[in-house]
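Researcher: Let's try something more involved. This one mixes different molecule types, so please make sure each is placed in the same coordinate frame as the others.
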Amino acid sequence: MRPAPRWVLLIAGAGYVFLHLPVLVLVVFSFNASRYSVSWTGFTLDWYRALAGRADLWRGLRASLIVGTLSTVAAAGLGTLIALGLARGRFRGRRGIEGLLTLPLVTPEVVTGISLLLLFALVGIPLGLTTITIAHIAFNIAFVAVVVRARLAGMDRSLEEAALTLGADELTAFRTVTLPALWPGIAAGALLAFIMSFDDYVITSLVAGPGSSTLPVVVYGMARRNVEPTINAISTVILLGTSVLIYLADRVVARAEGLKQPGRIASGLRPSR
Amino acid sequence: MSRAASPIAELLGVSKSFGSAPAVQEVSFAIARGEFFSLLGPSGCGKTTTLRLLAGLETPDAGDIRLGGASALLLRPYERRLGMVFQNYALFPHLTVERNVGFGLERRRVPAAEAARRVAEALTLVRLDPGEFGRRRPAQLSGGQRQRVALARALVLEPELLLLDEPLGAIDEKLRRDMQLELRQLHRTLGVTFVYVTHDQDEALTMSDRIAVMDGGRIAQLGTPAEIYERPRTEFVATFIGESNLFPGEGARQVSVRPERMSIAPEGGTLPAGHTARAGTVEEVIYQGEMLRVLVRIAPAHRCTVALRNDGSLPRPLPWSSGAPVQVGWDPADARLLEAG
Amino acid sequence: MSLRRRILAAFARRPALGAWGLLLPGGAWLLVFFALPMMLMLGVSLMPRGTYGGVEPGFTLEHYRRFLDPVYLQVLWRTVLWAAITTAICLLVGYPLAWAIAASRKHRAFLLFLVVLPFWTSFLVRTFAMIFLLRDTGLINSVLLGLGMIEEPVALLYTPFAVLTGLVYGFLPLMVLPIYASLEKLDPAMLEAAEMLGARPVARFVRVALPLSLPGVIAGMILVFVPSMGSFLTADLLGGAKQVMIGNLVQNQFTSARNWPFGAAASFAVMAVVLVAVWLSLRIRDRESLETGR
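Model: All components are placed in one shared frame. Result:
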């Protein structure tokens, strides 16, 4: 394609600034010594030190990690199975399953949350980390399935067929040929699931019990009460954490595909060829 | 029947449809041990589906498939002990050339040392140096090299039957001719039965012992290249293989005469004795190096082609040019009566 | 034949069986923890309200009728309007972004990464960043005050402007990616052919590039409109008490207002709007793709 005209590049540039400036500002001012005003009064790590002392944040982090890991593992497994089932078979009722899969994606988070609240109230399951994990698995299955399915769609069926003619039965063909090509997609889906889970406020706040707050819930409470640079600090920490995670996952996926470009994780949705 | 004489593979009344579209309709044929058997036809004629039915990658709706004398209907592809080379090679991208070729050996739990030896042998057989290519990945190979690896991967398992699905389709002209001869040589050296799918009739004529010409899911004619070319049975076969001039024959049937069997004489000249003659006007003279093709219009809706060898015996300058009245003819013995319909 | 082979052969003969087997675990989870709760909500929305905000046995349409009250319809209308405006702005900014990336040669992967990065960043954190910018003691006001352009802080936070900015900020990447995917597949030869046929830049865009990138545009619009309709956090943190969207209304019914059936009815109202919008867009896209063959 020919290079884009100047005005397009201008708008694009403005768009990039718009997308990144606010967070950059947030991060920069987490080191600002001034508590209330925005004028720069000096560099400090006080706000970060304040974080270390907050037991509620540590509890929240622990809860988020537990819920995140459990729900990611479960959603990755169940979601991949669904993607495989949809891609492999010709069967009736396919529309129904696909509908069921798109439901989480078009339902507002509030609605998902309250409907689950309803279920738990009716059945009598006490609200806590368990209910949060159940909820996270529910919406993450759909994300993983979509990502893995996209990956599968781009894969060459004849590879498996070749394996069959070479003496591998269906399970072996899956293990030795399909899975190696598929797992970057599964990794991308799992990463997406973990981040969705770690970041979730709305659904979690609705199905969490009094003592089981995840990190976003705690941080939201902080923002509600008073606004101080500690929020900037915890935001920066969360940012850093997820960035490192994404970078690592991106490296792993890139190595698997034999490439060195950044941003592969986003393209992990499609096979490299 | 002795083992040597019994067919290595048979299809008996096999039919297969995909949804409401029939792909293969009541196809029957037998493949002799050690022969080079081709399935030839235009795209959509069912040749690839037939091959896949043999491989076990599809199951027939009706009919039987026999391998080595026994029904193979219940056998999965990995139980059929045949080799297959796919159209796009289907090399495993995450494995090196060595591990690609050794894949089938691994499945059979062949010990590592022996496997390595056989892989090296197979690569040498397809003219790839194991030392140079063994550690490479498919992405680092050219199309021709990938094709050879695909071949080696199938052959290393020493199958009795090798299925090839248009393996030379993605390769350019010059290389293709070389590879055709190489495949033929391989076939002779190894004695493996080849079943070869192609839409290129030159290729089929060059390489095959027998050709099954397919059209619309059925076999139009089955025979040796010479039989198919010189005695086509239907209009489809006559026009799909080489070029044909069609003339009205007995009743509703037509006759086919190959362009190189036609004779031509300028107006006032004479055709060879006994030739059936038609009068016409030259439309085009096409110089093709080896051959000269003269397109003659003998009726408002009927044009025929006369092919002449450029062997120095032609009078120069040519005694006709565009617009010249001529006579064309043929020996009745060279006219093949085609089936009706 | 070994047991494993026998099982595989059985599944091979009935491919539908194998597919269902794979779908069962995940499908069951989704049925129980997604479809079932939705059914429950539907039931609840049709039952009379109980004393503590729950339900009593019975059947009633009063909650849906109540939703037709102008007060609540206004909330719905405001939500639709804001979602539509957000989608429009995201399209106007997102298309050039996608175009710039698709037209780039050397740094394409990096540019894509820069767009995707906000998407992976915590939504809460990004909303805070907006608050930090927009509030009275925030960066924008401080800069304007410092430059002497204003005497008092402008109320940027807790306004419709804040909510719209927050929504666009949150969902812009979702518009860029599908459009980029469409443009990437666009064969440059088509534009060159159009040029040879005498089409000037504007015509080339309107008559060639735009129709062919329409699937991406529609996908992007759906991806922005749907979460905007259901948005809760943005209006909650950036809008304050006055800027209420449907998402806030619904959440409210289940917490302070204590009217579960009404909240359920409101939920279905908003989902109905969303589903209609999605269905319409997919119809348009399919009709277009039928004609352009993409």
